[in-house]
Design goal:
Structural class: alpha/beta
Number of helices: 10
Organism: Humibacillus xanthopallidus
Strand order of the largest sheet: 3-2-1-4-5-7-9
Order of helices and strands: EHEEHEHEEHEEEEHEHEHEHEHH
CATH superfamily of the largest domain: Glycogen Phosphorylase B
CATH class of the largest domain: Alpha Beta
CATH topology of the largest domain: Rossmann fold
Largest sheet: 7 strands, parallel
Number of domains: 2
Distance between the termini: 28 Å
Helix content: 25-40%
Radius of gyration: 20 Å
Protein name: Glycosyl transferase family 28 C-terminal domain-containing protein
Length: 343
């Protein structure tokens, strides 16, 4: 969607304040907060170690220190948590800042996207927590605790996708499956072109793929033109997506949601992430028939068939993954939680 002019947050008409923790790794977490926050009635403040986007107001942003420096010890608290090192200055300061913000602003609800430790901290401060669920194997004790203690769970894919390992039926009553959504949901996609064109979309979360592998894929697909999209603005990216017959990308949620909004055939390739997040995602996309989903970057000789197969995908199937209204439903859900509407 196009950000609201003059600031990407609610007008405060509800009188409610919402805190939103957005992880700094990749671009998707902050993008999701901006898309949903701009649609909410409550005032949304984002807390993140990422840089504040230019179009998000300074008074609704708290920049947290990074906590990934090689410091401290007993980093998992004896295996109870994912990351809670002792005597780590960045970790201590960021958790203290989150607690101070909660004390100062008394949020009606706090959204976490994503951190088990932040979710537990805020819940222990007596604030309802809405936690985004991520694909992958979440059967570990840390995720089970975070999901058990959350007031609400939010999943940005259809329920039938079944892309979370270790899921517990007891969570179903407090979970909302929204389908995916992105900043492009307000744009109208055009039909895929007849030209044999590829847009390679790689996000900001890091990659296992080398430039040599990309060049080998390009050389192996004579007759196809490739456009590599990195660090481009939203308008330029949307244009590249619309100009492509096939999109090649990794299985991060932000990339998947933008391919879905563009309604394009795709080759989606898992990258190594904790808990096999992207590997679960590609299996779900493959099962839904919306993508050629792969666990690793393929060998050059596989690419001609992959692109031809992706170009033949019925892009109307993406409507199973997203209907374009997921961000609206997410905003309404969090606003209702902020107003104390019990689920």
């Amino acid at each position: 969607m196009t950000p609201v002019a003059g600031g990407c947050h609610g007008d405060g008409a509800s009188g409610a304040v919402v805190g939103w923790y957005a992880h700094h790794l990749g671009a998707g977490h902050v993008a999701r907060a901006r898309v949903v926050g701009s649609r909410m009635a409550a005032d949304v403040t984002i807390l993140s170690s990422a840089a504040r986007p230019d179009d998000w107001p300074e008074d609704r942003w708290v920049e947290l220190p990074r906590d990934d420096a090689a410091q401290g010890h007993d980093h998992t608290a004896g295996g109870v948590l994912h990351w809670a090192p002792l005597r780590h200055s960045g970790f201590q300061e960021r958790m203290q800042m989150i607690a101070a913000w909660v004390a100062a602003h008394d949020p009606a609800v706090f959204v976490t996207d994503v951190s088990v430790e932040v979710a537990l901290l805020v819940r222990l401060l007596g604030v309802p927590v809405a936690t985004f669920v991520k694909p992958g194997d979440r059967g570990d004790r840390q995720h089970q605790l975070a999901y058990d203690s959350a007031t609400a769970l939010i999943a940005t894919w259809p329920q039938e996708a079944d892309i979370v390992g270790g899921w517990q039926p007891r969570w179903d009553p407090k979970t909302t499956w929204l389908g995916s959504f992105s900043r492009f949901d307000d744009r109208e996609p055009v039909s895929p072109p007849q030209a044999r064109s590829v847009a390679l979309v790689w996000g900001a979360g890091g990659t296992d793929v080398t430039e040599q592998q990309i060049e080998e894929a390009r050389r192996a697909t004579a007759g196809w033109s490739w456009t590599v999209c990195r660090d481009v603005g939203p308008d330029a990216l949307w244009e590249s997506l619309q100009d492509a017959a096939v999109v090649v990308g990794h299985a991060g949620q932000n990339v998947v949601s933008e391919v879905a909004a563009a309604r394009r055939g795709s080759v989606i390739i898992a990258q190594r992430r904790p808990h096999d997040e992207q590997h679960f995602t590609v299996r779900g996309l493959e099962a839904a028939g919306v993508s050629q989903g792969l666990p690793v970057w393929p060998e050059p000789e596989a690419w001609p068939h992959l692109l031809e197969s992706a170009a033949r995908i019925d892009v109307g199937r993406w409507s199973r993954w997203t209907d374009g209204a997921g961000a609206d439903r997410c905003a309404a859900l969090i606003d209702s939680l902020a107003l104390g509407d019990p689920r």
